[in-house]
């Protein structure tokens, strides 16, 4: 009976390790770029993105790293929760948006986990992260297309 219990604990341990945080991540997994057309001018799209960040980002002032209206560029560093094993943990990421007339380019870059362990999310979380990036991109595009300047 004692051996069965130890075997059970061992399998639980292995299952928990299957979601272990990695120390490295390949460039193909780390960066996601999307180029999208819009019906708005650079100025209007920039204002719409600025408003989207203010409304949707927690602590918007702290996550905005660069906001250059003339260049049409935003760099933000928000946090998202990703599944690691049987729990969700916070992960940093960077979103660079380059806005021009009738076009916006999104570049998402996966960052490190914000836990004391650091490292990158497990491979099993990559699809979830990519889907969250696509959802964020679509939300921003929706804001741009429906934005009416003051």
> How would a textbook summarize the main sheet?
6 strands, antiparallel
Structural classification: alpha+beta
Strand content: 25-35%
Give the CA-based shape.
elongated
User: From N to C, what is the helix and strand string?
Assistant: HHEHHEEEEEH
Average pLDDT, rounded to a whole number, is 87
What is the element layout, followed by pairings?
Blueprint: H1 2-17, H2 27-30, E1 31-37, H3 42-56, H4 60-63, E2 64-68, E3 73-76, E4 79-84, E5 87-100, E6 103-113, H5 126-146
Antiparallel strand pairs: 1-6, 2-3, 3-5, 4-5, 5-6
Main features:
six-stranded antiparallel sheet; elongated; 150 residues; alpha+beta
Provide structural commentary:
By secondary structure, this protein is an alpha+beta fold. The protein contains five helices and six strands; from the N terminus they run ααβααβββββα. Strands 1, 2, 3, 4, 5 and 6 form a six-stranded antiparallel beta sheet that branches. α3 packs across α5. It is elongated, with a radius of gyration of 19 Å. The termini are far apart.
Summary of the model, kept short:
Helix 3 (about 40-55) packs across helix 5. The chain has 5 helices and 6 strands. Strands 1, 2, 3, 4, 5 and 6 form a 6-stranded antiparallel sheet that branches.
